[in-house]
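Work Package 3 (structural annotation) set out to generate three-dimensional models for the target panel prioritized at the project kickoff. During this period the team completed the workflow that converts sequence records into discrete structure tokens, so that structures can be stored uniformly alongside our sequence database. As a representative example, we reproduce one entry of 332 residues exactly as it appears in the project archive.
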Amino acid sequence: MKRLVYLLFILTISVVSCTETPVSKKIKFSGETQGSYYVVTYYDDEGRNFQKEIDSLLGVFDQSMSLWVDNSILNKVNDNDTTVQLDDIFIEVFKASKEISEATNGAFDFTVAPLTAAWGFGAKRRLNMDSTRVDSLLQYVGYQKVKIEKGKVIKDNPDVMFDFNAIAQGYTCDYLGDWFRSKGINDYVIDVGGEVVANGAKPDGSPWIVGIQDPTDPNEFSSYIKIKLYDKGLVTSGNYRKFHEQNGFKVVHTISPITGYPVYDSLLSATILAKDAMTADGYATACMVMGLDKSKEFVEDRDDLEGYFIYYTSDSTLHTYYTQGMKAVFDK
């Protein structure tokens, strides 16, 4: 009898142990990419560390999208190489860029490359800019001048060039997120140079917490406010770190595809919350081009976007404006 009870006890323990839910292990690592950093955090039942695979994927992405990789697909397209084969990354980013360009009436425009390079924010040599040079380059800018047909880029003018920097890091986050889900990992947050996408939640059900950068603090990891992020992309665009001087004037990196000149506005930074990081990235850039007033109107008219804007008033006082949907995810 005692032996029978003992065997039943062992059997019960075995059944319970087999039905227990595995405890997810937190994995976090970081590295360098695209001239900046990346930080990946996720929970995995198997405790797998995928840093080598992520670094490899980032290399594949650069081979498609980077202006700083000489033989990248992007540079081959810009050089009008007729033998170039477009990959899925390039086509996906092109389609999204075209859509955002159309939705913003050209405030976002991925054909701005000749201007960004000339103003000193590309891979090519900076030029001394004046109105004549700006006008000469504007003729090559316009998302309407390009399309993809049968896997090939068709340009109205061979001097049209692409710059996907305003959307590529956002898509990098989404690209890595898609890969994680293919591995059965659904709870993660990915930060590539400040562009963030989150999926799922922590094991206890609590949200991922991410910060909106403080544009007045030189520390790029200083947060102005923190956001609870579930299954969304969050991206901040601003002119407070990327700039240089030319002929005694401060030249900011937001170049208007419409005027051809750097954008000077009271808007210090625009943060967009959207379905994914690529979408948030593109619209955040568009808002910096549109300026504060037009951006407020634009995001309020869009059910799929939420916005948080930090700006100066005429008395040099710092203020914020945010949509109600953004307020709902504040980490109070």
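The first helix runs from residue 2 to 19.
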